[in-house]
Amino acid sequence: MPGQKFGPAWFPGLVAAGLGLCGLGLIFKDLRERRAWLAWPDWMRRARPRLAVAAVLGGLLFYVLAADALGFYLTALLIVVIWMRVLGAAWRIALPAAAIATVVIHLSFYKLLRIPLPWCVLEPYAF
């Protein structure tokens, strides 16, 4: 917004710095206790949780690569439907919930934060 002394990257940068400090604190704590830095929790020994973690990471990578070509609506809708299905939701729940979540997220960025998200393929239907 006009007149602000900081830009849109200020808050995400502040959150990233806080998370970085927390990560450093955890590393130093484990060093003091002489524990391993990387240990798989018990739930990672099962296939479904590993698939869920891979789906989240793959979805984020897909968004970075596809959002400029497909636009936010198509990319986010596809990702959220896949995430919900991987996590066990039925199609009758996943499709409407993903559609509602995509619209709410877009309106939150567009109207509240005044950050435009890419329309691309759906540009003729932009409101």
User: What's the shape?
Assistant: flat
Estimate percent helicity: 55-70%
Q: How many H/I helical runs?
A: 4
The SS-based structural class is mainly alpha
Q: What is the count of β-strands?
A: 0
The end-to-end distance, rounded to whole angstroms, is 21 Å
List the domain count as a whole number.
2
Q: Tell me about the biggest sheet?
A: none
Work out the radius of gyration: 19 Å
Low-confidence stretches: none
Compact overview of the structure:
With 127 residues, the chain is mainly alpha-helical. 67% of the residues lie in helices and 0% in strands.
What does this structure look like?
- Helix 2 runs antiparallel to helix 3.
- The chain is mostly helical and 127 residues long.
- The two termini are 21 Å apart.
- The mean pLDDT is 89.
- Helices cover 67% and strands 0% of the residues.
- It is built from 4 helices and no strands.
- It folds into 2 domains: 39 residues; 85 residues, no CATH class.
